[in-house]
């Protein structure tokens, strides 16, 4: 029995050596070869990676556009309101077409009403703008958490396949026979982690930019409310 074990070990070692030699001669496996080795599980992982990239680019551009802000905007609003040029102030807000401008526009439309009503109107518009900015972010978060789980599913399937082949082979165990299942197990895990990590970083980048914009929105709404409390000149 010991002799048989040594012989099997020798055969396995020779097989590994042959595989390593062939890989060295062919320059190793390419990225796409590894993806193919991952099996069908790589298809949903590939689709999730494309979805994550699309959401990130689309949201990043939208948030970048919304973050554009004229530093002189509130000063001009203050001047127009003090001069009684309400319509001019509204036109300025419409020309800027940013979340901050739309909040201030709603506040200007409520001038003359109780301050609590004005503040509530501004807050409601602000909440709507934040909801627009966060569009598809939950889906991106789902990708960041779901991709590694799908990759792990591929790992389990690959290992089941590998152990099944081991059982079917019996005493004629061949390392090459097991390579398909092992490749699937390893590649899908790596693929799932890559997609998940990428989506995780993309999500947090977008959240950080949204939080920065929300802070500016709140700051400008406070400036506007202070403006309404200023005594008329």
Automatic annotation (TrEMBL):
Transmembrane spans: 39-57, 137-160, 180-203
Primary location group: membrane
InterPro entries the record matches: ExbB/TolQ_transport, MotA_ExbB_proton_chnl
Recorded family membership: Belongs to the exbB/tolQ family.
Organism: Acetobacteroides hydrogenigenes
GO cellular component, one term: plasma membrane
Name used for this protein in its record: Biopolymer transport protein ExbB
Record lineage: Bacteria, Pseudomonadati, Bacteroidota, Bacteroidia, Bacteroidales
Pfam families in alphabetical order: MotA_ExbB
Signal peptide: none
Membrane topology classification: Multi-pass membrane protein
Compartments where found: Cell membrane; Membrane
Sorted UniProt keywords: Cell membrane, Membrane, Protein transport, Transmembrane, Transmembrane helix, Transport
Residue ranges annotated for the MotA/TolQ/ExbB proton channel domain, each copy included: 96-218
PANTHER family: PROTEIN TOLQ, TOLQ-RELATED
GO BP, sorted A to Z: protein import
Coiled coil: none
């Amino acid at each position: 029995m010991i002799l048989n074990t040594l012989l099997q070990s020798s055969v396995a070692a020779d097989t590994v050596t042959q595989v390593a030699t062939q890989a060295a001669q062919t320059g190793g496996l390419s990225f796409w070869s590894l993806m193919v080795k991952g099996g069908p599980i790589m298809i949903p992982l590939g689709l999730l990676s494309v979805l994550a990239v699309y959401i990130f680019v689309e949201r990043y551009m939208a948030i970048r556009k919304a973050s554009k802000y004229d530093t002189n905007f509130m000063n001009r609003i203050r001047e127009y309101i003090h001069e009684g040029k309400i319509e001019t102030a509204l036109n300025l807000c419409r020309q800027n077409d940013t979340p901050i401008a739309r909040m201030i526009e709603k506040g200007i439309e409520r001038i003359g009403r109780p301050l609590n009503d004005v503040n509530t109107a501004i807050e409601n518009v602000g909440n709507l703008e934040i909801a627009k900015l966060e569009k598809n972010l939950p889906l991106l978060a789902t990708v960041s958490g779901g991709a590694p789980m799908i990759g792990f599913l591929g790992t389990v399937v690959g290992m089941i396949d590998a152990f099944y082949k081991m059982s079917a082979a019996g005493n004629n165990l061949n390392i090459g026979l097991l390579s398909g299942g092992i490749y699937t197990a390893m590649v899908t895990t790596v693929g799932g982690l890559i997609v998940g990590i990428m989506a995780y970083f993309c999500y947090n980048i977008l959240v950080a930019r949204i939080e920065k914009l929300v802070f500016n929105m709140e700051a400008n709404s406070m400036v506007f409310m202070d403006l309404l409390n200023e005594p008329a000149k």
